[in-house]
Amino acid sequence: MSKSDLDNWTLIYTTRQAHKIEIIVALLKENEIISVSVNKKDSAHAHLGEIELYVHVRDEIFSKLIIEQNNL
After folding, report:
1. What is the DSSP string of 34-48?
2. CA contacts within 13 A on the Cβ side of 67
3. Can you give the pLDDT at residue 5?
């Protein structure tokens, strides 16, 4: 993946709770939005770090609206 490909993705959500990411990914998928989660949690210390969720920049506003409407 080139640098220009990465420029097309934007961070829309972070959390320490994996189940919230799974719910949001499912909601986005229902709306035909592709998302990518990046787990930055420390494997030795589960309480450290977060999980980040990214979408394509063209889907950013709609994705955040979906998250807001579902009180996540």
Report:
1. -EEEEE---SS-TTS
2. 22
3. 64
Please report, in tens digits, the pLDDT of each residue of the chain (72 residues total): 555 666 899 999 999 999 999 999 999 999 999 999 999 876 666 667 899 999 999 999 999 999 999 999
List Cβ neighbours of 48 (8 Å cut-off, separation of 6 or more): 41, 42
Q: Which residue has the tokens 């709609």?
A: 62
CB within 8 A of 38, min separation 6: which ones? Answer: 51, 52, 53, 54
Cα–Cα dist 12/25, whole Å: 11
Note if the pTM is more than 0.70.
yes
Question: Rounded distance, CA 54 to CA 38, Å?
Answer: 8
Nearest to 33 by CA among 4, 60, 70: 60
